[in-house]
Amino acid sequence: MLAVDGLTKRFGGFLAVNQVSFEARQGEILGLIGPNGSGKSTTFNLIAGTLRPSAGSVRFEGAEITGLAAHKVCRQGIARTFQIPRPFRKLSLIENVTLAAYYGEAGAISRAEARHRAEEALGLVGLPIDPSATTNGLGAAALKKLELARALATRPKLLLADESLGGLDSTEMEHAADLLERIRTRMGVTIIWVEHIMGVLMRVVDRVVVLDHGEKIFDGTPALAAVDPRVTEVYLGKGRP
Q: Cα–Cα 20 to 30 A to 42, which of 3, 10, 56, 178?
């Protein structure tokens, strides 16, 4: 479904992503993992159109999307969440998600259809559709759910989930992981999940790609990643078992 080939990003003299290549297969949950500063979010930003690559290509369903603006990438069928949710605080939950649905189709659907998609997305993540429900008082877990709902309302084929576990306690992490698995099952959405917290993610993903200092060091199953010497060194330090 998604083919990343030789993706590279330089910021002046700093090489943030260096010749990264991987594929996401239709229907899978792919974990893109690595320690802080390994290039995960930069890679996401290059795929999603937030940043333009210095080199390399991104193909989605066989079509070249390298360097497309973020709104054009979204309308190709790729949605993303952000590490730090920034909802429209003056809008209700349903209005936040309806706006995302309308944006995702470039206004080509009716407002009634956009609202219907918003209600479906909110129901899937377990947030209220009541027009009086606002963002006031939402905790970290609920804000992450709202971020997911906004992405799902665009009806994506591919979801880029950026650090969905950040700021959550252990129970909330488990629920977030289960939610991503449920989204894959119910909506048939392929998911690439960026995360630096390995434990819960490794229970859910089908395959992992590991980055370190902007380079890919592993691509394979979670079981093999757990015993790979380079992955172990990155997470535990040299000389650790």
A: 178
Kindly list the strands in the beta sheet with 55-60, ordered across the sheet, starting from the edge strand earlier in the chain.
14-24, 2-11, 55-60, 63-64
Please state, in angstroms and rounded to a whole number, the distance separating the CA atoms of residues 46 and 53. 6
**Structure-block tokens of residue 190:** 């392929």
Tally of CB atoms within 10 A around 105: 17
pLDDT beneath 70, residues of the chain = 107, 165, 236-241
> What is the pLDDT at residue 37?
87
pTM for the full predicted model:
0.90
Per-residue pLDDT at 165: 66
